[in-house]
Design a protein that fits this description.
With 664 residues, the chain is an alpha/beta fold. It is built from 26 helices and 15 strands. The termini are far apart.
């Protein structure tokens, strides 16, 4: 009787190494620790990079040995990949989709459908790359976000065997091919990690070098089997030490992967190179508990994120530690059951129909995802009134209707051809006026000034203010301040979510560590908004900027619209995701928080001292201490708790017109 191994005569199978399974355990436990308890394992996301090195090493070992032996069979290679990858992935995606149908709201369900289709087609990294942005849904609410790494691996498995086969037939130097491609990929990574962080994170071009480190090691071990036999214990110790340094030093706000990714990847290479005889590999990585976690690492990685994500969605926020720990324990149990009864059965089955059945099932899942994404397959919570609320959440029109331009090396947006050159400078609270500008361009084009939107979400237009996760904010802001000071610009509108920065960020917040959040930097000293004097220093910096600009041109300070949880359209929803949900009719107004009134008065005085004019939306949005949150027919006017939706701004956001158009 033919065994699965014998069925693949053209594929060489590397000798099993328990220490590599132990290294898989280090990788998956690091990821679980970061996702479940980020304060305890702040650098745990580097576990994915360890997986990349392991995958590159093992797959390349199979390819090289096969090319040296009876030859490499692409058909056998991909059939083996399907047996290895598809069973657990099918189960997890199907379970995630089924639970999503029961618990998610219409817009969430449609997004999940898109991610199911992308995951089944192994293009999740491109889907999430395309979504990345300030108004992208929080990562913690995307149940299949973690499939981005699997997609990169599978894309590598498609291209790499073809490239190696071509190079082998042409008798090219394989070491040179590996080195050149790896260096090109590393160069792409380093070139994009600061200016285009989403591309650097999700693109296979900027991640391939990590897998190629493993491939390079596989080639060296094949050509020079004894090259790594000396100092095995030193290699293993250095490798685990680098991984530990990565876990301790790397943070999510760092430019990653970048140079930081060398810690886990070089560490993984050293651990594998040390071989199974190194003391740490034999007694630590090769220990029974580590090997056990290594064997279930793939299904454990697949299961843990949907469980944590759904826990967050059901809790409407970060679950407590007990719930997160329970989710990880359930993930571990499901991973063992998946490995024991699904993975092993599919991998060792002798039925020839296994591969086409698995491939057909994956195609069927992709089609279900498309149906969900296009609303042809509705979710359980499909009440049309819920859909109306969902429409408000998605109603964001920026930069629709605007023309992209590059100014001083930074991307900005333009509309209008009028003589007045107006720069709108700020964050997403300036962006929400984009639909108004487009509407004026349609209705009164001859009166519209030439408008330049220089905006970045979460980047306050205040010199010296930082937030470590927004790595490009200061460079963009500095470039636009120089542009504003130049002769090309006649007037400047400075706006931002002042209530977010100066009120919300200054409040005690258990969700933020002491080293997180906004701060004002003076030299090497960081003055925190929360628990420090950063707010006072930032307000002084804002006043200095307005004064500097006002000396040369017309300057407007745009005050903030009311913000807070009472204004978000989700307040209309009532009931339970696990039971029945309905849309209630909330009161058309909500009280204006006193702190926001006080901040507006302070900003008004600041602008007056600096010689800037004030544009205040509150007279249009509020009467006394009550501010509108819906139209008379109950339609929400907010996209979320602090942004006005595009449909409302097109029709009613006329308080900024004084800066946008010339009088008739």
């Amino acid at each position: 009787m033919t065994t699965p191994a014998a069925a693949h005569p053209h594929l060489a199978h590397p000798k099993y190494r328990s220490d590599i399974d132990g290294l898989r355990a280090v990788a998956v436990l690091s990821v679980l620790g970061f996702h479940g308890f980020p304060n305890w394992v702040p650098g745990g996301f580097i576990g994915v990079d360890i997986f990349f090195v392991i995958s590159g090493y093992l797959i390349s070992t199979i390819i090289f040995a096969s090319l040296h032996g009876e030859g490499f069979s692409y058909r056998e290679f991909y059939a083996r990949r399907i047996r290895r990858i598809f069973p657990a992935l099918l189960l997890v995606i199907a379970a995630t989709l089924a639970f999503g149908w029961y618990a998610l709201l219409p817009h969430e369900w449609q997004q999940l459908g898109k991610h199911v289709a992308a995951g089944a087609a192994f293009i999740s990294n491109f889907a999430f790359w395309n979504e990345a942005g300030y108004f992208d849904g929080a990562a913690e609410t995307k149940p299949l976000l973690h499939l981005w790494s699997l997609a990169i691996e599978e894309q590598f498995y498609i291209v790499w065997p073809l490239l190696l086969g071509f190079a082998w037939r042409r008798r090219w130097r394989i070491a040179l091919v590996i080195g050149v491609v790896a260096l090109l990929s590393l160069a792409v990574n380093l070139a994009t990690v600061h200016n285009h962080p989403s591309a650097a994170f999700y693109s296979p071009a900027s991640r391939a070098w990590e897998l190629l480190l493993g491939a390079g090691l596989a080639w060296l071990r094949l050509r020079q089997a004894h090259a790594f036999s000396r100092h095995r214990d030193l290699q293993a110790g250095a490798g685990l030490g680098l991984i530990l340094l990565g876990l301790l030093l790397v943070r999510s706000h760092h430019a990653f992967p970048g140079g930081w990714a060398l810690l886990p990847t070089v560490g993984a290479v050293l651990c594998i190179a040390a071989g199974p005889q190194a003391w740490l590999n034999r007694h630590v990585l090769g220990s029974r508990p580590m090997v056990w976690f290594g064997l279930i690492s793939y299904p454990l990685y697949l299961w843990h994120w949907p469980l944590l994500t759904y826990a967050r969605i059901l809790e409407d926020g970060t679950p407590n530690r007990r719930i997160r720990a329970l989710a990880l324990l359930i993930a571990t149990l499901l991973a063992w059951l998946t490995y024991r009864f699904v993975e092993r059965h599919a991998r060792h089955s002798e039925r020839r129909s296994v591969v086409p059945l698995l491939a057909g099932a994956m195609v069927a899942l992709a089609l279900l995802g498309v149906l969900a994404a296009t609303a042809r397959l509705p979710a359980r919570h499909s009440d049309p009134y819920i859909s109306q609320v969902a429409a408000a959440v998605r109603d964001w029109g920026y930069p629709d209707g605007l023309t992209s331009e590059t100014v001083r090396g930074e991307r900005t947006w333009r509309i209008g051809t009028g003589g007045g050159q107006v720069l709108l400078f700020g964050d997403s609270h300036i962006e929400q006026y984009g639909p108004r500008a487009v509407e004026l361009g349609r209705t009164v084009p001859k009166q519209l000034n030439t408008l330049h939107f220089a905006t970045w979400g979460g980047c306050p237009p205040i010199p010296g203010v930082f937030e470590d996760r927004n790595v490009r904010c200061d460079a963009r802001r500095s470039a636009m301040i120089q542009y504003a000071l130049g002769s090309e610009i006649d007037a400047v509108v400075v706006g931002g979510c002042w209530n977010c920065y100066f009120i919300a960020q200054a409040q005690p917040n258990a969700a933020l560590r002491e080293d997180e959040g906004y701060y004002y930097q003076d030299g090497q000293v960081k003055h925190r908004f929360r628990g420090g004097d950063g707010v006072e220093r930032s307000l002084a910096s804002l006043e200095a900027l307005l004064r500097l600009l006002s000396v040369q041109k017309k300057v407007y300070l745009l005050l903030d619209n009311p913000v807070g949880p009472d204004f978000g359209p989700e307040k209309l929803l009532s009931g339970s995701r696990m039971g029945q949900m309905s849309v209630g009719r909330m009161s058309p107004t909500a009280p204006l928080p006193a702190a926001q009134v006080a901040l507006n008065e302070r900003l008004r005085a600041l602008a007056t001292r600096a010689g800037a004019s004030v544009i205040d939306p509150l007279p249009n949005l509020c009467r006394a201490d009550q501010c509108i949150r819906t139209l008379p027919d109950g339609t929400p006017i907010y996209k979320d708790s602090d942004h006005l939706r595009a449909g409302y701004m097109r029709r009613f956001g006329n308080w900024l017109d004084v800066a946008l158009i010339r009088p008739e």
